[in-house]
Write a sequence for this structure.
């Protein structure tokens, strides 16, 4: 055991510290299910190639079924058994059950094509689960948008009030982002879903393996095309991490906005107690920890891409042991992303919006100034001049401590003689919003139709 799967070549046992740096069972135990499924498919492939007979295949499949049962009952069962990695554990357990036949299974296979296959299977499964989680997160944002369809709030640029928007419009912006994230994950999945098994250590296998059938057996779309590439490639992990990273960035921005909005300074929303914590010292505190951690975990997800890209950048073809460092970042990133995605619905469901305060803020900050400029344009003033005149009116309004809609008409006319009595109608919040009825705009009708479209698309109606 001290030499694991390759006893013959060595006279001395491995140094304990070598074992510590080399062994991967502590983390690749998470590939157990995939390793067992890949081994069963390989058993069928070498049976088709005439390496083992039907009786041997049946015994292997049944023993592998036992192992699958052990893992189903306790996924961490192999941990602490002292094996080098999950592949060694599976082989040792097979040998314990079917004797020498267990040692035949590795015919024509290498741990290099084996681990690449396991990891692709794992990645595929993780992407599929993430895609489901993205959908659930999107639905919770769409429900929030439905609930707050009548809520106006300030829209910002530079974190300065810009123009009013509907809170629903804001929520649907994140639904759009998550949709692109789902597309990127699904696109990565297309290249993840290729089967390296049959590539051997690096040069291909010498047995008559039907790699098309093998790929199909494991649910892959196709076999990989080049054995060196197949065992040396981890860009399928990189692009999964890149898609995960972009998703995490979006969730982090969402979290940051809500962290701001639930501060006393904004006070647009209150979070449900169930996603907040208190302070050990300051009794009044209710901290948005869940959201801060969504923002915080984004760093780990992005870091895992950097970690793996750095690991890969200097590697000659094909397999190098450095590549064992692909797993922990991948597992960590996908686990972190999963948590972030799953907390979004909890936050959205419990979010209490202070509608009056949002509306009040939407009216403030001269966020209808663009409207006044547009009004002047409607009176034939060129936009640049209208912009300039409105800027001067805003300055005057600040001096007088008034909102634009509260300005005496004479004051307005003194700067822009084209202004008439009808200007008031242009400056109301409802007018400002409803004039943006363009496709993708924040007018209630435009938002309602995009909301309805998302509800249909996400199967909510
Ligand atoms: N634990 C190894 C990994 O994760 C498995 C492959 C080992 N291959 C080898 N040639 N030593 O990469």
């Amino acid at each position: 055991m001290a030499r694991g799967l390759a006893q013959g070549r060595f006279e001395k046992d491995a140094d304990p510290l070598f074992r510590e740096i080399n062994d991967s069972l502590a983390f690749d135990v998470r590939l157990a299910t995939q390793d067992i499924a890949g081994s069963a498919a390989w058993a069928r492939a070498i049976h088709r190639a005439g390496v083992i007979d039907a009786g041997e295949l049946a015994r292997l499949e049944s023993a592998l079924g036992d192992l699958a049962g052990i893992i189903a009952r306790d996924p961490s069962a192999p941990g602490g058994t002292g094996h080098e990695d999950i592949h060694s554990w599976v082989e040792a357990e097979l040998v314990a059950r079917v004797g020498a036949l267990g040692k035949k299974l590795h015919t024509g296979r290498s741990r290099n094509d084996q681990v690449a296959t396991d990891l692709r299977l794992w990645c595929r499964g993780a992407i599929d689960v993430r895609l489901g989680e993205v959908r659930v997160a999107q639905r919770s944002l769409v429900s929030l948008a439905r609930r707050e369809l009548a809520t106006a709030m300030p829209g910002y640029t530079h974190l300065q009030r810009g123009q009013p928007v509907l809170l629903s419009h804001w929520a649907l912006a994140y639904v759009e982002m998550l949709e692109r994230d789902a597309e990127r994950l699904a696109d990565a999945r297309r290249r993840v879903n290729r089967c390296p098994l049959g590539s051997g250590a690096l040069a291909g296998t010498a047995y008559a393996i039907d790699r098309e059938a093998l790929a199909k057996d494991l649910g892959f779309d196709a076999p990989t095309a080049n054995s060196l590439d197949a065992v040396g490639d981890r860009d399928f992990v990189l692009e999964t991490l890149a898609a995960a990273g972009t998703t995490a960035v979006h969730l982090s921005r969402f979290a940051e906005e809500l962290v701001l909005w639930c501060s006393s300074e904004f006070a647009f929303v209150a979070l449900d107690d169930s996603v907040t914590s208190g302070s050990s010292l300051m009794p009044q505190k209710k901290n948005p920890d869940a959201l801060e951690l969504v923002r915080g975990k984004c760093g780990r997800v992005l870091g895992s891409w950097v970690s793996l890209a750095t690991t890969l950048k200097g590697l000659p073809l094909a397999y190098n042991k450095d590549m064992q460092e692909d797993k922990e970042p991948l597992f960590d990133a996908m686990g972190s992303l999963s948590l972030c995605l799953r907390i979004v619905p909890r936050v959205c469901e419990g979010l209490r919006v202070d509608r009056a305060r949002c509306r009040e803020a939407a009216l403030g900050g001269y966020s209808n100034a663009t409207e006044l400029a547009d009004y002047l344009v409607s009176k034939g003033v060129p936009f640049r001049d209208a912009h300039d005149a409105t800027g001067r009116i805003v300055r005057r309004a600040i001096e007088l401590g008034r909102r634009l809609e509260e300005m005496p008409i004479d004051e307005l006319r003194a700067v822009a003689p084209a202004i008439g009595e009808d200007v008031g109608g242009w400056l109301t919040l409802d007018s400002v919003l409803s004039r943006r009825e363009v496709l993708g705009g924040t007018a209630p009708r435009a938002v309602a139709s995009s909301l309805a479209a998302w509800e249909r698309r996400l199967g909510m109606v």
About this structure: The chain has a mean pLDDT of 96. Residues 16-107 form a domain with the Fumarase C; Chain B, domain 1 fold (CATH 1.10.275.10). The chain has three domains: 16-107, 112-360, 363-457.
